Structure formats: structure tokens, C-alpha cells
């Protein structure tokens, strides 16, 4: 990693929900929290706790030098609302098979 840049991944003890409009997209007590220098905390939710049938793969892909290549999914009325790292870098291997939404509720 770049000097001064840090990423940690740990099991969250918080309940995480993702709602879009009136629709529940995900809910989990097994989320991981990823903390990265210069970025907001992000909750990565196991794919089993996400309603994948509501999402459509998009053509968007991004590259993070610290986490790897991300793929995105959309809703009919919201583009690229969730992403995942199908083959994350070894330093953040725990986020494999987890999805991350921009907007989450934590309690």
C-alpha cells in the first residue's frame, strides 16, 4: 500500500439495512466494515443477505489500486447503486462475495 494509506476490514457488530424507496434490498447482521484512508466507512454485505434478483449488472467497472477491480449493479430507476470486488486483492480478501451500497442504514 502507498505510504500513509491504510485499509482495515473487520466484522461489524451493527445491523445493516439497505432500502431504496419502499423496497428492502439487503439486510444483515453479518456485514463487514471497511475503513480506508480518505473515504467514508463502507459496509460490505454478504451476497446471501442481498436481494440479488432486484439488481441488474451494469457495464460499469472501476479499478482501485488497493482493492482491485469492481463491478456494479443497478436498479431500474437508479444506476450503479451497488458494487463488489469479485477478485479482491489479498490484503482485503474478506470482501470477496460481499456487496457494498452507497446508502445504508446501520443500527
From TrEMBL:
Pfam families: NTP_transf_9 (PF04248). Residues 16-103 form the DUF427 domain. It comes from the Bacteria. Coiled coil: none annotated. Gene3D superfamilies: Domain of unknown function (DUF427). This is DUF427 domain-containing protein.
Amino acid at each position: 500500500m502507498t505510504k500513509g494509506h491504510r485499509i482495515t476490514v473487520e466484522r461489524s457488530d451493527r445491523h445493516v439495512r439497505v432500502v431504496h424507496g419502499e423496497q428492502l434490498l439487503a439486510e444483515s447482521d453479518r456485514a463487514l466494515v471497511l475503513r480506508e484512508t480518505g473515504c467514508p466507512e463502507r459496509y460490505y454485505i454478504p451476497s446471501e443477505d442481498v436481494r440479488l434478483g432486484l439488481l441488474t449488472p451494469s457495464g460499469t467497472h472501476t479499478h482501485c489500486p488497493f482493492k482491485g477491480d469492481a463491478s456494479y449493479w443497478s436498479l431500474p430507476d437508479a444506476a450503479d447503486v451497488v458494487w463488489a470486488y469479485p477478485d479482491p486483492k489479498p490484503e482485503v480478501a474478506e470482501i470477496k462475495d460481499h456487496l457494498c451500497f452507497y446508502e445504508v442504514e446501520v443500527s
